[in-house]
# Entry
Amino acid sequence: EVQLVESGGGLVQPGGSLRLSCAASGLDFSTAWMHWVRQPPGKGLVWLSRINPDGTVSSYADSVKGRFTISRDNAKNTFNLQMNGLRGDDTAFYYCAGGSFDPDYWGQGTLVTVSS
Amino acid sequence: DIQMTQSPSSMSASVGDSVTITCRASQTVNHFVNWYHHKPGKAPKLLIFSTSNLQSGVPSRFSGSGSGTDFTLTISGLQPADFATYYCQQSYSVPLTFGGGTKLELK
# Structure
């Protein structure tokens, strides 16, 4: 069974930083494309970023480009989202997801709240 | 960016009914459309990939069709577990984009 478990969410002040992590099991992590997706309160799903299997190619939504950085550690079956310059509109549930290319499997999410 | 316009945004139905949700892309996405099921507090679940392929373990009452810019998800014989929010998503080009969601409620 594939399991993805996010950690690192919490309350942070505007302008602050947070690092989300996702631990993966039950899939061939070294060949999986991994994604981050968020859901603001009361709204729909928004794709943020993805990284290729060997970690050499990453893509970002315009809303987070230059502020967020995705990375992975294939030796530990984990990948991360470093979030800097956080703003109020970054408040959301953040989901990690992964699969052969698309977000096939998802975690249950971690809540990030940006507020003073 | 490719916009995915999903309709309806909400609907109500009864157990045993059949329902159809549609998704229109702002430009061609070939067959690269996925459908997800999401309940609050739970992990979203992939139902259909590449327009019409049923993800492993997903009941056959779910089906998808379409091509180019117009896509549909059909659920035949609704079960209690099916009442949730459904999202389409294109993976033709980055940024990946989702439809706004269809909330399916019990009548």
In short: The first strand of chain A starts at residue 3 and ends at 7.
